[in-house]
Amino acid sequence: MTAMRSDFSLALFVLVPLVLGLASWWLGRRQALVSRWLVLAANLFTLALAGVLWLDATGVIGLGLTAAGGNGAAAAGSAVPRWMAELHVPWIPALGISFSLGMDGLSLTMLALTGLLGAMAVLSSWTGITDRVPFFHMNLGLVLAGINGVFLATDLFLFVFFWELMLVPMYFLIDIWGHENRHYAAVKFFLFTQVGGLLMLVSIIALAVLHAMASGTWSFALADLAGTAVSPVVGMLLMLGFFAAFAVKLPAFPLHTWLPDAHTEAPTAGSVILAGLLLKTGGYGLIRFAVPLFPAASRAFAPVALTMAAAGIVYGGIMAFSQKDMKRVVAYTSVSHLGFVLMGVYAFTPQALSGAVLQMVSHGISTGALFMLVGTLQDRIHTRELDRMGGLWAQAPRMGAAALVLAMALVGLPGLVNFVSEFLVLVGTWSVSPVATVAAGIGLVIATIYALRLFQMAFHGAPREKWTLTDLDARETGTLFLAIALLVLFGLYPAPILHMVEQSVSGVLAAIAAGGAA
Amino acid sequence: MSAADFLGALPLIVLAVGALLVLAAAAFTRNLLASFVLTLVTLGVSLAASAVLMAQGPYTVAGILSFDSFVLFGFLLILGATFFAAISSWAALRSRRGEGGDFFFLFLLSALGACVLAASAAFASFFLGLELMSVSLYALIGWRRESGRGTEAAIKYLVIAGASSAFLLFGMALFYADTGTMSLAQLAAAGQGPLAPVGLGMMLVGIGFKLAVVPFHLWTPDVYDGAPAPVTGFIATVSKGAMVVVMVRAFAPALVGTGGINGLVGEGAVAAAAAFPWVFAVIAGLSMFAGNILALRERNVKRILAFSSIAHLGYILVAFLAGGVEALRAVSFYLVAYFVTTLGAFAAITELSGPEADADDLSHYEGLAARRPWLAAGFTSMLLSLAGLPLTAGFIGKFLILRAGAGAQLWILAVILAVNTTISIFYYLKIVSAMFRGFAGHGAAGHAAAAGNAAANAQGAAVTAAAGAGAARIPVLAAAALIALTVLVIALGVFPSPLISFIGSLHTGGL
C-alpha cells in the first residue's frame, strides 16, 4: 500500500452526531430547545464538513485533506474504490477487524445529502414534536451517526455494526412519535430490515471464512475480501445475502411491503429520514458492496434485478395512484422512484449508474421535502385523507406553490434534477434491456397521473370541508425553498454531482468488466 | 491429598467452609446482614483464589477434579454470577424479617456444586456436583413458601430433575459396563460395544435437562416463573453455564480436527458415535425455533426470558458443534455475554418486584421509562443485548458464534440462527416498547395530556412504592450492581478486544 492517509475528519462524521445526540438527551432535559439546537448543529456540521471536503477534493480550496485523484493504491478493476481519504484504527485485532473508514466521491455525495436532510428533519419537527423532545433528538442523532457510518465504513464488520445501529433509534422514532398504527409499522420495519441484515451478516462471515481459508489470516477489510476467489454457486449465494439486505432497504419490489406502513406512520422527521436517507443506504450498499464484490454473480443476476426494478416502478405508480392517505401516496411513489435506482445499478452502463446515484440525491431531496410538506399540512388540519381536502390553495398559497413544484419533481419535469436522473437511467438501460426501459417509461406516465391527482385533490377544486389554516411560516418556507432551489439548481446544472461520482462509477463498472471477463 | 492438592482446590474449599460458616451464623445470630457479608466475602476470596490459580498450568486433584484455565474461567463466571445474584436478593430478603440466612447458605452450596461440576473429570465428581447444585436449587426455587406457584415450580423441578438424574446415573452405569472407564475425557472417544452409545444417549438426557434444551425444556417456563427473580437469574446462568463448561471440555476436543460434525460423518466413523453431533445439531435447531416461537405469544416477562434462554442455549450449541479452539472461544465469549445480560435482566426484574410476588406481567413494565428512566435504560440494554444488537455484548457474541459456525461449515445452523435472531427481536421489542409506552397521548392530546401524564407518573410511582413495601428506592448496592452490569454489557459490545484476547489465552484438554 502506498501512503495511507489517516484522516480523522472522517471519524467526525460519525462521532459528532453520536456525541451531540447523546448530549442532547442529557442537556435537553430541562430546556427542550437545547436538544433541537444540538442535533441541528450536528447536521450542519456534517453538511459543512462535507462541503469543505468537497471543495478540497475539487481543488477549489487546497487544504490537502483529500487526495483528489484517489490514493492510487487500488488497481483498475478492483472492487476497492480509490479513496480520497482513509482512516484505519485497530479495533478487534484478534478477529482482523478494524475501525476503517474510507471516502470517495459517492460517499461524499451521500454525506452531504445526510447533512442536508438531517437538518431538514430537525427543522420539520421543531414545533411538531412536543413529547419527550430530548429522547427524540437523541434517537435522531444516533440514526444519523449510523447512516454516516454506513456511507463511510470500509470494514465489513464495521459496516454491519453501523447498519444495525440505524435500526433501534429508527424503531423508537416510529414506535413512540408515530401516528395511529405506529406499533405495527415499527415492528414490521424492524423485522424486515433485520432479516435482510442478518442474511448479509452470514454472507459477510462466510466471505471472511473463505478468505481466511485461502490466506490464513482473518480480515473483514473490503480491500482484503474483494480479492477472495469464490465459485460461481457460492458467489451467487453470498451475493444474494447482500442483495437481501439492500433490496429490503431500497426497497425493491416485492420486498417493499414494510415501506408504506413505516413511512405513513412515522412522524414527519422520521419519514424524511426514512425516505431521504435510510432507503439510500440500500442503493449505496448495492453500488459499494453487492455489485463490486461479486461481479460475475451480479451479472448473472442482472435480468432478475431489472425485472424487479421495472415491476417496482409500475407497481409503485399504480399503488400511489389508488391511495387516499396523502403520506401513503408519497410512500408508494418512493417504491416507484427507487426502482430507477435498482435499474440503474444493474444496467451496468456509465449513464445508468450515474443516473442511479443522481436519482438517490434527487429522490432524497424531493421526497424529503414532500414529506415535510405533508407534515406541515397534517399539523394544521390533523388529517392526511385526500378526500377531506380540496381547495387549500386559496388559504395557503405558499404551501400550494411548494406542493406544485414537488409534484412536478415526482413527474420528472425537465428543469428539475429528477428529470436528469431518470432520463440518464432510461438512456443507459435502453441498450441493455429495451423491455425494462419501456416499462419504466410507462411508469413515468403513471407518475404524471398520481402527481397531478395528489396536487389537485389537495389544493384545487372546491373545498370539501371547512379548514382554516395558516400558510407556511418563515422556518417552513425557508427549508422548503432551499430544497426546491437545490432541485432546480442541480436540474439545470447536474455536472458537479456527476463529476464527483464519476470515478466511483467507473470503478464499479471496471470491477464488473474485470469480473465478467474472468 | 497433598498440600498442593489442597492449594489447588482452594476455591472449592473456601466455598465449602464459607457455606458452613454462613449456616452457623444463621443458626446462632439470625443476623441477615452478617450472613450476607459473610457470603460476599466467601465469594470474593474464592474468586481471588481462582484468578490466582489461572496462572498455573493444568493439574488434577484427587483424580476426579481437573483444573485448567478454562475451568477456572468457568469458576470466575459462576462465582461472579452468584455474587450478583446474592446482591440482587439482599433487598428482597431484608424485607422478610427473620429469614434468609439459610438462603445464602443454599446459594453458596449451589455455587459449590456448580464449580465441582465444571471441574469434574470423572463420573463421580460430575454426579456429585450436579446433585449438590440441584438439591440446593429445590429449596431455593420454593423459597416463597406461601406462594402456590413457587411450591409448584419447586416440586416440578424436583420430580423432573430426579428423573433426569436417574437417566444420567443409569447411562453412566451402561457406559462403564461397556468401556470400563468412568473418565469424562473418554466420553466421546470410546464406545465400540452397543451399550456405550445407549449409555451416552441416556446421559445426554440428564445433560439436556440441565441445559433446558428441546425436548428437555418443559420445566423451564414454570420454574422461571415460580422461583424468586434472583434465583431464576442464578438458574439461568450458573446451572447452565457449569454444564456448558463440562460439555466443552468433554466433547470439543473430540470434534476438533474432524472439521466439526461434517468431518465426523465423512470419515465413516462408527455409526452410533457419529450420530451424536447430529443429535446435538437437531437439538440446537429445535431449541432455537421452539424457544423463540413459544416466547412470541407470552406476556409474562419471566416466562419470555425462560423461553429465550432455551433459544440462547441453542445458539451456544451451534458454536459448541463447531468444535476445537473456535468453539472454545465463541462459547466462552457468549457465556460471558449471556451471564452478564441475563443477570442484569433479572436484577432489573428484582428491582421492580415486591417481597411477595415478582413483577412478571408485561403491564408492570408499561411506562417504566417515565417512572424510572435509569432502570428502564438498564433493562433495555439487557434486552437489546439478548437480541444481539450492536453496541452490546450480545452482538459480538452472536458474531463470534456465527463465525465459529461458518468456519466449521455449519451453514444450515448459521442461517437458522440468523432467522431465529430475527424472530427473537419481536418479543424483546415487545418488552422494550411497553417500557417506552404509556407516556403522554400522541397527536391530539398535546399539552393537556402532558400535565395529566405527570399525575399518572406520580400514581405509577406510588403503585411501585406500595409493591416494594417501603423499598421503592433502589438499595445502593443493588443499583451499583445493575449499573456495573449495564456498563459491562456496553463496554463488551464496543471494546470486546481485551476479553477476546483473554479468552484467546484459555486452554483446556489439549485445546
- Helix/strand/pairing category of chain B: mainly alpha
Number of strands of chain A: 2
Low-confidence stretches of chain B: 257-272, 440-472
Distance, first to last CA of chain B: 28 Å
Strand order in the sheet with the most strands of chain B: 1-2
Please estimate the helix content of chain B: over 70%
Strand content of chain A: under 5%
How would you sum up the major sheet of chain B? 2 strands, antiparallel
What is the H/E order of chain A? HHEEHHHHHHHHHHHHHHHHH
Structural class of chain A: mainly alpha
Helix content of chain A: over 70%
Give me the side-by-side strand order of the main sheet of chain A. Answer: 1-2
Radius of gyration of chain A, rounded? 22 Å
Calculate Rg of chain B over CA atoms. 23 Å
Arithmetic mean of pLDDT of chain A: 87
- Most residues in contact: chain pair: A-B, 42 and 37 residues
Q: Strand-residue fraction of chain B?
A: under 5%
- Low-pLDDT residue intervals, each spanning 5 or more residues of chain A: none
Quickly describe the structure.
The complex is a heterodimer of chains A (518) and B (511). Chain A is mainly α.
